[in-house]
Amino acid sequence: MARCDAPNCTIMTGLLCLVASVLIHAVSGQRVKVEPEVASYPGQTVNLRCAFNDPSGVDLTMVTWIYEPKVGERINIAVLHPDHLNNPNYPDSPVKGRVSFMNSPPTLTSPSIQITDVRMTDEGKYICDYATYPTGNEQGITYLIMLAKPQNSASIVTVLAGSKKEVVARCTSVDGRPAAVITWVTTANGNGTSVSKLGTDDTVTVSSEYLLVPTPADNGKDISCVVTHRTLDKPESFKLKLAVQYAPKVTIEGYDGNWYVGRTNVVLTCQATGNPIPTIVQWKTLSGEMPDTVLVSDNQLKVLKVDESVNTTFICEVTNRIGVGKDQVTALVREPPGNSSNAGVVAGAVIGSLLASLLVAALIAVLVTRSRRQQQGYRANGGTDMKTRIFGSGKKASKNGTGGGASTGGVGGGGNNGPVYVYNEGSSHQGLGDKNHHQPLAVGSRSEVISTTPTAQDILLSSEIDEAERRKFDELEDEERYDHFSGGAPILQLRPPHDQDDVIRGYMDDDMESQGDGSVISRTAVYV
């Protein structure tokens, strides 16, 4: 094999030499089988296995176990020679008396060893080295890792709210091997620091602190210390809550700005937070005197009835071990709602009611007038729903049934100068014919009556009709209209009272008679 340190060795030759050397050692190293790493706890027995695979073509001349601590020189701890298989050698070393070959007797192809009562100081590199011919030494390396399960804990540090950084939580992992890793999980605005300290038997204690500028808002926030270690199946978490002490923070609730004279049972509530919990609550006024209508109970102030005496400033003071906090509210007493505005509302309501009443009355009057006009109106030439009844002018009838001045020529005669009254057949009033004792008398083909019935004027003056009938006749006289027969005499058309409807209807239906020229006349017509 070319020597890389020769003067004429070029860089390429050196690289080739290095690669060749690595390949040779890799091939040889593959034949020495060991465990790359073994972990153990103090006081246990650890087995370090070693075997030489496929020893054909080489001579195994000797096996040596070498211990290489983290700090210090290599040292042989066990030697096995083929000529002394029953008497292996254990040179002086930190593990002498605790190290031995596992098989009895041991063999060169399987020279595994064990170490009892292992200590933290036994941690390091253990090399199983074979001396062979003609390839030289071949070896395998096992790392012994000593483990120590730490004791973990966490705690909160109670601090006062302030303006500088304080340690608010601590977390510790004691006597662990290897060293534990500590992290913090929280929403607080701080940071964690960690320090490690070597303990006995090369164990490590890790301490971590969480620092922040404490404020009242940080009190009660969640914070967790998380410890990660090789000996733990999963990280160990310690959940805590920050403890920041501060003087009470006070607010008064319940004032709505609508305290008016006469209002009852209004309540102010004093709300306070603090650490430690506040223990004393006091209500005061700015004037120093509490109104008589005020009742105080713990954190509540109740005004039984609002008056001018509560037109003041109320103060609530809350005390804890750290200090005193307070809040105040100024009550402004107003006039009772609706004193002025309600008067306007009432006046408006009254006026509106009056206007509405007048409107309704006017509407009723219009409807009544229209109804009366419709019921008491007349038809100039008579109608199919009308019956004509002609009353005389007060002349007495003659025995033969003819009166003076009576005409046998019919209604159209010039002698008809008396009024003619027309009644509505649908009226419910009693007929005037019955009321005035008309006596019908048939003369020839006509039916005429010499009436002793009083005139319209006489009827209005008669005491036989009631006041309602008088008003109706008055209205009829105001609205009277004249139709003229061929003789030119005026005809006054009236409607009978409604309560005589049934009587008049039966009378009129028998009273009317059709003429040859198509006209209809009354059998009881009286000509004057």
Please report the distance between the alpha carbons of the first and last residues.
178 Å
What is the multimeric organization of the chains shown?
Answer: single chain
Number of helices, where a helix is a run of at least 4 consecutive DSSP H or I residues = 6
Low-confidence stretches: 1-29, 378-452, 459-465, 480-509
Shape: elongated
Range of strand content: 35-45%
- The overall average pLDDT, rounded, is 76
* Largest β sheet strand count, sense and barrel closure: 5 strands, mixed
**Category from helices, strands and their pairing:** alpha+beta
Strand order of the largest sheet: 2-10-9-5-6
Helix fraction? 10-25%
Q: How many strands appear in the DSSP assignment?
A: 35
Radius of gyration: 67 Å
What do these coordinates show?
With 528 residues, the chain is α+β, with helices and mostly antiparallel strands. It contains six helices and 35 strands. Strands 2-10-9-5-6 form a five-stranded mixed sheet. The radius of gyration is 67 Å and the shape is elongated. Mean pLDDT is 76; it is low at 1-29, 378-452, 459-465 and 480-509.
Secondary structure: elements and pairs:
Layout: H1 11-29, E1 32-34, E2 37-40, E3 46-48, E4 50-52, E5 59-69, E6 75-80, E7 99-101, E8 113-115, E9 124-133, E10 136-146, E11 151-156, E12 159-160, E13 166-176, E14 181-186, E15 191-198, E16 204-212, E17 222-228, E18 236-241, E19 244-253, E20 259-260, E21 264-275, E22 280-285, E23 294-297, E24 300-305, E25 313-319, E26 324-330, E27 333-334, H2 341-376, E28 386-390, E29 420-424, H3 432-435, E30 441-443, E31 446-448, H4 456-461, H5 467-478, E32 482-484, E33 490-492, H6 501-511, E34 512-514, E35 520-522
Parallel strand pairs: 2-10, 12-19, 20-27
Antiparallel strand pairs: 1-4, 3-8, 5-6, 5-9, 7-8, 9-10, 11-13, 13-16, 14-17, 15-16, 17-18, 19-21, 21-24, 22-25, 23-24, 25-26, 28-29, 30-31, 32-33, 34-35
